[in-house]
C-alpha cells in the first residue's frame, strides 16, 4: 500500500457552513465524517460523498433525551423522558419495552461532496453548497452511507434514508456527479448496503443488496455456509424497479467467524477476471464487533458465481491513523469500505475509519490475483 491515510476528518469540516447551522435551538458538533461514496469526475479529480453525522452537544436536558428530526417546516428536537429509554450508546437511544427494537438518534446525517486530487491524496475543495440533506418524510432522521456507481453516461448513488416510516434505500441520479436528483425509494425496509454494478449484464442493471431480519433458517450441519445476513443480488430494467435474483450471492462462511455478519462495500467494477467487489465482514467482539474489508471476484455473466475470494482481510482497522483524533473517538475496530476507483496499476479505495474519518488507500491490482 503506497498510500494509506486519513484525508478528511471532523476537524476539516466548517460547522458554520453546515446545512443545520442556525436551524436548531441547541449546540451541535460533528460526531463523524465517514463512509464516503467515491467516483471520478469529468475533470479527472475524485469526488467523495461524505456522510456527516451532526450530533447534539448535550442531548440530555431537563430529564429528557432529544432526537433531531427534519420536517418540511424545518428541524425539530423531539424530547423523550429518560425513564422510557436506554442511553448507553452515545450515537442513539433505545426505547424500553415493546415487542421489537425501536430506536432514535442523537445525530442527523447529511452528505457532503468533497473533491480530491486525481490520486485521492489531498482535498481540492469542499462543496458545502452541494450538500445533500433530508428532503422527504422518509428521510427525516437523515441520509446515510452513499455508494456511487457510473453506468454508461449516468451516475447512480444509493443511500440509506432513515425515518419512523421505514429504513429504506433511496436512489439519486446525476449526469455529472455534481447535480443530483432524488429518484425516491428503490428498496424497502432495512435492505441496506445496496451497490449498483458499474456496468450492465445482458442489458440489465444489477445490484448487490443486504436485507436484514431477526430470523434466519439454519444450513445443514455440514454446510460450508453459516446462516445470517448475506449479500444478495437483484436486477432491474431501469435502476428503479428491482427483482431479487433467485440464486444467493456472497454468504457468511462457516470456516471463519470474521463473516458472522457481512454486507456490501464497494460497487462492483468489471475487471479482466470478472466483477471485483469489496465487502465487509464483522467478527463478534465488544459492542459492535470488528469490521474488516474482504474481496471477491464474481463471474461477469452470472454474479451469483464467485470466481475467486480469500478468507484473509484486505483491510483492517488502523488505530495509528486515528491516534491524532483520540479525543474524538467513540468507536474502534471499524474499517467500512464504501468506494473504489481504478488508477492504472492500482485501485484507490475509500473507507470510513472508526465511524469517524475518511480513509484513502492505494491497493495494487496484484492483490486480487
Tell me what the structure shows:
This protein has one helix and 27 strands. It starts with a strand and ends in a 5-residue tail after the last strand. It is mainly beta and 369 residues long. Strands 20, 21, 22, 23 and 24 form a five-stranded antiparallel β-sheet that branches. The mean pLDDT is 95. Helices cover 1% and strands 49% of the residues. It has one helix at residues 319-322, and strands at residues 4-8, 28-40, 46-56, 60-61, 64-71, 74-81, 85-86, 92-95, 103-105, 107-116, 123-126, 142-151, 154-162, 167-174, 181-187, 191-196, 205-211, 232-236, 243-244, 261-264, 269-271, 274-283, 290-298, 306-309, 335-343, 346-353, 357-364. It has a single domain (4-368), classed as Tachylectin-2, Chain A, CATH 2.115.10.20. Strand 8 (92-95) and strand 9 (103-105) form a beta hairpin.
Keywords:
globular; 49% strand; Tachylectin-2, Chain A
Strand and helix map with partners:
Layout (H helix, E strand, L loop, with lengths): L3 E5 L19 E13 L5 E11 L3 E2 L2 E8 L2 E8 L3 E2 L5 E4 L7 E3 L1 E10 L6 E4 L15 E10 L2 E9 L4 E8 L6 E7 L3 E6 L8 E7 L20 E5 L6 E2 L16 E4 L4 E3 L2 E10 L6 E9 L7 E4 L9 H4 L12 E9 L2 E8 L3 E8 L5
Antiparallel strand pairs: 1-27, 2-3, 3-10, 4-5, 5-6, 7-8, 8-9, 10-11, 12-13, 13-14, 14-15, 16-17, 17-18, 18-19, 20-22, 21-22, 22-23, 23-24, 25-26, 26-27
Protein name: Glycosidase
Keywords: Glycosidase, Glycosyltransferase, Hydrolase, Transferase
GO molecular function: hydrolase activity, acting on glycosyl bonds
Amino acid at each position: 500500500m503506497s498510500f494509506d491515510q486519513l484525508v478528511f476528518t471532523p476537524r476539516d469540516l466548517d460547522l458554520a457552513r453546515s446545512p443545520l447551522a442556525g436551524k436548531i435551538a441547541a449546540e451541535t458538533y460533528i460526531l463523524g465524517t465517514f463512509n464516503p461514496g467515491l467516483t471520478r469526475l469529468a475533470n479527472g479529480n475524485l469526488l467523495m460523498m461524505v456522510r456527516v453525522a451532526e450530533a447534539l452537544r448535550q442531548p440530555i436536558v431537563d430529564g429528557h433525551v432529544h432526537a433531531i428530526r427534519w420536517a418540511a417546516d424545518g428541524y425539530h428536537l423531539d424530547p423523550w423522558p429518560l425513564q422510557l429509554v436506554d442511553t448507553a450508546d452515545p450515537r442513539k437511544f433505545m426505547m424500553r419495552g415493546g415487542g421489537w427494537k425501536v430506536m432514535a438518534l442523537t445525530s442527523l446525517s447529511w452528505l457532503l461532496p468533497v473533491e480530491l486530487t486525481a490520486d485521492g491524496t489531498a482535498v481540492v475543495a469542499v462543496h458545502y453548497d452541494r450538500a445533500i440533506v433530508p428532503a422527504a418524510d422518509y428521510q427525516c432522521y437523515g441520509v446515510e452511507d452513499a455508494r456511487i456507481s457510473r453506468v454508461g453516461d449516468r451516475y447512480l448513488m444509493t443511500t440509506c434514508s432513515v425515518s419512523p416510516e421505514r429504513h429504506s434505500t433511496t436512489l439519486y441520479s446525476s449526469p455529472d456527479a455534481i447535480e443530483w436528483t432524488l429518484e425516491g425509494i428503490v428498496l424497502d425496509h432495512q435492505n441496506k448496503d445496496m451497490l449498483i454494478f458499474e456496468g450492465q449484464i445482458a442489458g440489465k442493471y444489477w445490484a448487490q443488496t443486504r436485507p436484514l431480519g431477526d430470523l434466519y433458517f439454519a444450513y445443514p450441519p455440514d454446510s460450508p455456509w453459516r446462516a445470517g445476513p448475506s449479500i444478495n443480488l437483484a436486477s432491474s430494467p431501469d435502476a428503479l424497479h428491482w427483482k431479487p435474483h433467485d440464486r444467493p450471492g456472497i454468504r457468511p462462511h462457516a470456516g471463519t467467524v470474521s463473516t458472522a455478519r457481512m454486507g456490501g462495500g464497494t460497487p462492483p467494477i468489471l475487471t479482466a477476471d470478472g466483477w471485483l467487489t469489496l465487502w465487509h465482514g464483522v467478527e463478534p467482539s465488544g459492542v459492535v464487533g470488528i469490521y474488516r474489508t474482504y474481496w471477491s471476484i464474481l463471474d461477469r455473466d452470472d454474479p451469483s458465481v464467485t470466481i475467486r475470494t480469500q478468507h484473509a482481510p484486505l483491510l483492517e482497522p488502523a488505530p495509528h491513523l486515528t491516534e491524532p483524533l483520540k479525543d474524538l473517538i467513540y468507536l474502534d475496530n471499524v474499517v467500512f469500505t464504501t468506494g473504489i476507483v481504478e488508477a492504472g496499476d492500482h485501485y484507490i479505495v475509500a473507507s470510513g475509519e472508526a465511524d469517524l474519518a475518511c480513509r484513502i488507500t492505494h491497493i495494487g491490482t496484484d492483490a486480487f490475483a
